[in-house]
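Lecture notes, unit on protein representations.

Consider one protein chain, 577 amino acids long.
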Amino acid sequence: MSARRRGLSVRVVVICSFLSFLKLASFAQTPAIQDPGEQAGCSTCHDQGQKLAKSAHVKAGCLECHPKHQAYPHPEGIPKPACATCHADVAADYSQSVHGQAAKKGNEAAPNCGVCHGDVHEVAHARSEAFRRTVPEICGMCHTDVVEQYKGSIHGKAVAAGNRDAPVCTDCHGEHKIFAPKNAQSTVNSAHIRDTCGRCHSDVKLARRYNLPLDRVTSFDQSYHGLAAEAGSQTVANCASCHGVHNILPSSDSASMINPANLPATCGKCHPGAGTRFAIGKIHWVEGKSEPAPVRMVRLFYIFIIPLTIGLMFLHHFGDFARKLIRLRLAPREASVIRPRPIKPELRMYGPERVQHLLLVLSFVVLVWTGFALKYPDGWWAQPLVMWESRWPVRGTIHRIAAVVMIGVAVIHVITLLFSRRLRNHWIDLFPRRADAVEALQMLFYNLGLRATKPAVSAHSYVEKAEYWAVVWGTFIMGLTGLMLWFVRYTLVWLPKEWLDVATAVHFYEAVLASLAILIWHFYTVIFDPDVYPVDPAWLTGFTVRKRSPHPPQHLPEPKPHAEEAASIEDAAKQQE
């Protein structure tokens, strides 16, 4: 061979070697499945290579799942890697799920990765729309009846029509971490139904896209059912209780559980007889937006009357406090004179009245606490009651017990008035007169500095009369509306649901008005008034320290001072002499 030919051969070998090196280097940086040699070699005997190219495992090479198979014939006894090797988090979720637990117990019919995702070489992308449409069919392999109901529902029909936003099984039940509905961790547990449904039905974009009502979740949250569910009640009705579980249909469908013709049966599951005489009416409504007309009238009335009443009370007492502050602290002080205690202290409350008052105070405080805890379960002050709600309805139970006590006090009060002449004569002093309005107006003007002289005020003035008759009215109206809410089953049988909504609104606003009136009007009169501070003991001893009238009311007998009182009065008189 000539030197020229030898040189040419060397150059060819060098060039081929360099190209081969580049080719090997490029193969090293490319996924194994894309290796033409490997793919061609495996596909010679196996067609999985072609299937793999279209699956979610396209980036995984044959040798990643089939190690040591480069040689032929392939070695035997080499185990295939489990799915958990690459999908550890998913496998952990599956092991906790109802399916995983069934498999651990030896249930061979329990679904595994392959049952739901198919052959490992043909696994579809779980987030793809194609796979999502097949989810009901996959679940239907085991849950045939459930899937048939779902296919006939509004959700199933939407999915079949190609709606990508309509929920499938995994949207509600979860994907790998599926729990039984009774499990507290389940997304379809009664404690989580509201949040599961709310993921779509409180989504503003979805609601606008498909013209869905925006107030369904909000109105549920404001309702009795929603408030009870928020506090942890496991038995109160939720979305599925009324709309169904898998057979959810629009209200216009005659087979829908929420069709007007079917509402008596749906509501009757918890409230037997509801809607049998009157239509159930509107269920979902939001205060201030879509509320029924009677409820709107009640709300507007109280929005006007509460600020007006409480505002006038505040002005009256603030002016009274300011005048007494100036007189007691800022005005020149007179020389101190030892004055004997009055020989005839004024008796304001008899023994039976004090007992009734004490029971009234206790029941009122409990009613206010538990009542507002029912309305606002998230408040820190409500937590001592709410923390037990999942096991026992503490708030409602205690609230009703206090209500029975208050109603019982009202009944006892009426009985004592009927059978005791002494108490009846005392009650006559609290009966309203036309002069009370004049006294109240003149005193308000005086406290605000619009009148120069202080008006004469009756022994049992407009102050006590306003308190007494406010209690009478409040007990009656709160008792009536409270009984309607307590015995809701009978209310829905005999009255339309709007009456129940009105009763709920009146009960709430009256509670607000009563609570504010007690804080501003009664507490000032009995506690913070400088004339009686730190407290007027009339509710404890029956005698008041307030110097209101030189003589006790004409219907009350002149009380006899105790021996110790008489002795102290006599000693003070001697010292003064």
